[in-house]
Amino acid sequence: MGQTKRIGILTSGGDCAGLNAAIRAVTHRAIGTYGWEVIGISRATLGLLSRPPEAIPLTLANTYPLLTAGGTILGTTNKGNPFAFPSAEGEFSDRSDEIIQGYHQLGLDAMIGVGGDGSLAILRRLAQQGNLNLVAIPKTIDNDLGSTERSIGFDTAVNIATEALDRLHFTAASHSRVMILEVMGRDAGHIALNAGIAGGADIILIPEIGYTIDGVCQAISQIQAQGRNFAVVVVAEAVCDEGGCQVTQTHAQGQSRLGGIGQYLADAIAQQSQAETRVTVLGHVQRGGIPSPLDRVLATAFGVTAVDLIAEGKYDHMVTWQKRQVVSVPIEDAIAQYRAVDPQDTLVKTALGMGIYLGEQ
Amino acid sequence: MGQTKRIGILTSGGDCAGLNAAIRAVTHRAIGTYGWEVIGISRATLGLLSRPPEAIPLTLANTYPLLTAGGTILGTTNKGNPFAFPSAEGEFSDRSDEIIQGYHQLGLDAMIGVGGDGSLAILRRLAQQGNLNLVAIPKTIDNDLGSTERSIGFDTAVNIATEALDRLHFTAASHSRVMILEVMGRDAGHIALNAGIAGGADIILIPEIGYTIDGVCQAISQIQAQGRNFAVVVVAEAVCDEGGCQVTQTHAQGQSRLGGIGQYLADAIAQQSQAETRVTVLGHVQRGGIPSPLDRVLATAFGVTAVDLIAEGKYDHMVTWQKRQVVSVPIEDAIAQYRAVDPQDTLVKTALGMGIYLGEQ
Amino acid sequence: MGQTKRIGILTSGGDCAGLNAAIRAVTHRAIGTYGWEVIGISRATLGLLSRPPEAIPLTLANTYPLLTAGGTILGTTNKGNPFAFPSAEGEFSDRSDEIIQGYHQLGLDAMIGVGGDGSLAILRRLAQQGNLNLVAIPKTIDNDLGSTERSIGFDTAVNIATEALDRLHFTAASHSRVMILEVMGRDAGHIALNAGIAGGADIILIPEIGYTIDGVCQAISQIQAQGRNFAVVVVAEAVCDEGGCQVTQTHAQGQSRLGGIGQYLADAIAQQSQAETRVTVLGHVQRGGIPSPLDRVLATAFGVTAVDLIAEGKYDHMVTWQKRQVVSVPIEDAIAQYRAVDPQDTLVKTALGMGIYLGEQ
Amino acid sequence: MGQTKRIGILTSGGDCAGLNAAIRAVTHRAIGTYGWEVIGISRATLGLLSRPPEAIPLTLANTYPLLTAGGTILGTTNKGNPFAFPSAEGEFSDRSDEIIQGYHQLGLDAMIGVGGDGSLAILRRLAQQGNLNLVAIPKTIDNDLGSTERSIGFDTAVNIATEALDRLHFTAASHSRVMILEVMGRDAGHIALNAGIAGGADIILIPEIGYTIDGVCQAISQIQAQGRNFAVVVVAEAVCDEGGCQVTQTHAQGQSRLGGIGQYLADAIAQQSQAETRVTVLGHVQRGGIPSPLDRVLATAFGVTAVDLIAEGKYDHMVTWQKRQVVSVPIEDAIAQYRAVDPQDTLVKTALGMGIYLGEQ
After folding, report:
1. Are D295 and D245 within one domain?
2. Of the residues B251, C321, D115, D350, which has the maximum number of CB atoms within 10 A of its CB?
3. What is the ipTM of this complex?
4. Which domain holds residue C140?
C-alpha cells in the first residue's frame, strides 16, 4: 500500500452536521487501510498559525463516536483569511507563509480541507503558494457548489427547517396567522426552496428571484379567498427588502442581529394585509443537528475517497457526489461552478406547479 | 347513563400541543360512552359572539386523526376578553351577555373550556354570570397552574426547547461561541429551567430569580478557566434587563418583536466578556409540535374525566394531574394557585447542584 | 391549457412514506394548473375491479393535509395480480378486462400509477391491452429501480433503520452484546447498506454478496481484539442462511413470520463465537413513517411532472430523478433497469473502506 | 462541607436511557460541590468481583458528554446474582463476600447503585451483609417501582413505543391490516398502557388483565362495523396466551427469542377473524434511545440528590420522584412497593373511556 504518510485534516467556514462523520471516515480509511498517521488541525487555518501548530492526533478510538455528533471536534472559523488577517489593531496583513510553515512543522505529506467555496479558494491559494498537497471535501448547508449534487450539511439543514415549518403550520392554523420563517442561505435559496416545498409553504422567497410585497399579499388574499385562514412563508436570510438590501442581514459578517428580512416581511405584510403575522428566525439550530443518515453516508463516502485521492497522489482535487457515485474534480473547477437556484430548476417548477408564490418571474 | 346531553368545547389562549388530543378524547367519551352530542366552538369565545354562533359538530370520525396533530382544529385566540371587548374604533365594551346568549343558542347543557389561568378566569366569570355549566381542562406551555403537576403542552414545549439546545451545543463548541437561546415563559421560568437542565445549559435565567451581567460573565470565565471554549445560555422571554424591564418582550401583547432579552444578553455578554455570542429566539415552534406521548396521555385522561365530571354534574371544576391520578378541583382554587419557580424547588437545587448559574440567590 | 380531463391515480404494491405527498401534488397540479378532475382509485387495481369502481374525487381540500402523512389514503395492496387473480377457491383467472372496463366506467382520460417494478409491469400490460393512457411514478423502499436515483419511500426507510441502529448501539455497548438488526429489502440490499454505513454497523449482509458465519465471527473477534466489547450487524431480510435460502423469509408472500435470517444469525453467531446476541426485526415501521423532507420533495416533484406528462400526451412514461432534475423515461426501459447493489458501487467501497465486513468478495 | 470521600457508582440490570445522565449528575455534584472522588464500577457487581476490581475514575471531563447518551458507559448486566453466581460448569455459589471485598479494595466510603427492584434488593443485601454505605437511584423502563412516580428510562421507552405505533398506523390503514406491536414489560403493563393510549391503539393487552381471543376479535369486528378497515394492537411481552403462559416470552432469561406473544396473537387473530395481520417486536430499541428531556431531568435530579444523601449520611435510602419533588425513602420500603397496573388506575379508566379493548374486566 505504498509509503506511510502523515496527513492532516481541517474544517473551515461555518460548521454544519456531518463534519465529524467526515473526520471519522478520513481517520478510519487512512489508519485502517493505509496505516498512515492522521493529524487533526484546530480551528481551520488558525491552528496552523499557532506556534507550535495547534493539532491533535486522530485515532480509531477518538473518532469512533463522531458519526452521530454534529459540528466539528476540530473547531472551525469563518474568520481569519490568511491573506488578509486582521490584527488586534484592526489592520490586515498577509500571514499565508506562516500557515504554510505550520503545515511543514507538522510534517504533513498531504492535507484534507473540508469547506465551502470561500474556504476552498483560500486553501487552494495556500496550497499553490506553498506547494502543499491538498484534497478537498465540500460542505455547505447552502448546497451552492455546482460540481456536486450534494454537500455535507445540506440535508440536515433542510430537515431542521422543514421540521420548524411542520410545527409552525399547527400554530398558524390555530391562531389564523401568517407565520414567517427566516432560514439560512447566504447567497443561494436552496434551503428555503427545499424546505418550503417539503414543509408545504405558501410563499417562498429566495435571493435569486425578485418579489413584491404586493405580490406576497395577493397570494395571501387568494389563500383566504379559498377559505384557508392562515399562511406560511419561508424566506432566505439573503433576501432583500423591496427597495434593495437596506435591511441588515441576520447573520452577516460575524454579527448577531435579529430582525432582518423576516421581521421586515412580518411588518410589511401586517401593515398591508391586516393579517396577524409572526416571525421566527431559525438561526444556528440549522447548523447544529445530529447529521441525517444521508449526510452521514455522504460524509463517510467523501472521507474514504478523499484519502484514496491522496494515496493516488491526485492532489488539488475535490470529491463530489454525482449520479450515485463519488467522483473527483479539480478544485479549481469545483470553485468556479457556483450554483444558485436557477429559475429553470426542477424544484422551481415544482413549487410553481403547487401554486406556491415564488416572486415575480 | 342518564339523559342525553349536548355539550360544547372550546380552546382558549395561546395554542399548544395536545389541545386536539383533548378535543378527541372529549368527543370519544361523550359520544362513545354517553351517547351525547358534542359541539366544537370556534376561536374560543369569539365563536359564541358570532350570530349564528360559529361551531361545528364533533364526531368520532372527524376527531379520529387528532391525536397526533398539534394546535387546535377549533382555533383559539388570546385576544378578545368579553368583559372588555375591543371595537374597531379601539374602545372597549362588555359583551359577556352576547356570549352567554351564544351558549344558549347552541342549546348547550354544559361546556368544557380548555385554557390557562387567564382564560379560565374569564370563562368562570361568564359561567357564574350566565349560570352556565362549565368544566375546565388546564393547558399552558408555561406549566404555571399550581393545582396540577402538569398542564397540556408543557412537556412538548420543553422537548422542543431541549432539542434546540442539543443542536446549539454542537455549533457553540465548533465555533467557540456563547450561544443564547430565548425560550417562551411569559411569567414563569419552568420551560427555561427544565430545558436548561435537560439540555445541559451553563446558565439559566428565569424571571423568578435576579441576575447580573457580571454574574453571567463570571460564570462564562469560570467555564473558560476549566478549559471549555464555549457556553450555552437559556433565558425565559420574561426576564428583564439589568435595569428592570426596559427591554421590549419578544411576544408581548400580540406584537411580533424580535430582539428582546436574548439579544440584550448577547450584546451585553459580547461587550463585557469579549466572547463571540449568537442568539436564537425559538418562538412559536415551541407551541406547534406534534404532541409528545406524555402530552397525549395527559390530554386524553383529562378529556375523558372532564366529560365524566359533566355526567356527575360536578360543574365549576377543573381536572388536574396529581400523583399519577386525575383529580378534580374547584376552578376557583385552581386559578388561585399560581405556581412560579420557587427557589426551594427540586429543580432549582438540581440546577445549582450541577453548577449551573441561576442568578443571584 | 388544452382540454379538460378527468384523470385517475392509484397506488400499488407495499405502502411507503411519501405516497400521500405524491397524491397531493398530482391533485394540486391537475386542478390548480389545468383545471382537471382527479379521481383517487381505491386499493390499487382492486378498486377498478369493484362495480361500481371504488374511487373518490380528490380535491385541493381533501389532499391538503397529506404532505406529512405516511402511507396512502387510497389504500394499496401487493396481492391481486389481475392476470392471475386468486378466487376464494384458490384458483387463478385473468380479470384484466374487468379492470380496463373499470377505467372506462370512471370516464378516465389518463391514469397515474404509483408503484415499484412489479406493479408498474402489471399496469403497463393493462395499459397496452386496454389502450389506457398511463403515466408512472416510482416508489419503493428498496430503491432498486435503476433509471431513477431515488424512488419515493427509500430515504424515510433508511432514516428509520438508521435510527434503530443508533439506539441499538447504546444497548449493545451497555451489555457487551452483538446486536443484529434485520431490515427490509426483498431482493436488493440498499436499505441495509445505506443504514449500515449511516448507523456505524460493523457488519452488513446483503443478498448481493455472499458471506460465511466464519467470516462474520472473525470480524467480531477482530473488533474484540481491538478492545471493543460489542458489535452491530445489519442484515437485509432477503439474505439467505449459509446453506442457501432454507430460512423462511420474514415478510415473504403475505405471511407474517418472525424468526427469519436475523434469528438465524443470532443463533449461529452465539453458538460459534460465545457472544451474547440479540435480534431486532424492524418490520413494518420502516414503511410507515412521516415522510422525510427529501421524500416529500421527491414525491411532490414527481407528482407535478407526472401531470405535465399527461398534459403533453407523453404516455407510457415514468418520471425519474437524475442529477437534480426530474426526467421522464419510457416505462418499458424503467422496468428493465433493475438495480441491485453492485460490488463496484461507491457505497460498497465506502463500507469496505471503513472496515465493515460485507461478506466474501 | 465535611470530609473528603471516595464514592462509587454502578448501574445494574437492563440498560435504559438516562443512566449516563445520572452518572454525569452524580459526578458533577460529588466533585463540583463536595470535592470528592468518584469511581465508576464496571458491569454492575461484576466489576467488584474482578481482581483488581474493574473501575474507572469519573471526572467532570469524561462525564460531560453523557447527558444525551443512551445506555451506560459503565456497562451493566442482568445476570450474575452474587448470592447464586453461575460457574462455567453451571453450578451456583455465593460470591457476595468477594464483592464486599472489592468495595473495600476500591477504598469506597459509599456507593450509589442505579437499578430496578431486583438489582436493588441484591445490592441492599450486600450492603447489609458487608456494612456498606448504599444509596439507590431507581431505573426501570417498566416503571413498576411504587414509591416513585417515575423511574429513569420509562419516559423514553414510552416515546419509542409510541413512535412505532404512529408509524404502524399509516401502514395498517394503507393495507387494511391488523398490526400488532409487542412492547417490553416483563411483569407490568405500564409501557403498553401509556404507549397504547398515546399511540391511539384499539386494543391494549397487559399482564395485569386477562383477555380472550374472542374478545379481541369482537373488538376488531366492531371497528370494522364502524367503517374503519384496520386496527392496531399493543401487547406487553409478559402477556400469556389464552391457555396460560405456554408461549415462550420474547426476552426471557437472557434468551433471544422472537415469535412470542405478538406472533401468537397475529396467528390467532388471523385465523379467527380473517383479518390480515402483521406483528412487530420492538425489542431492544426501547432501551437504547437518546434519553427524553424528562428522563434527563429526572436522572439529573436523582443524581444530585443521591450524592446529597451520602453527604448527610442518609444511607440505605433511595431517591424518588413524588409530586414534583425528589424525596428519599428507605430502600426496603421502595422495594416492597411493587406497582403493577391497577384496574382502578386513571389510565385504565382513560383507555376504557376511549373505547379501547383492555381485556375482560
Report:
1. no
2. D115
3. 0.95
4. 6-152+291-322
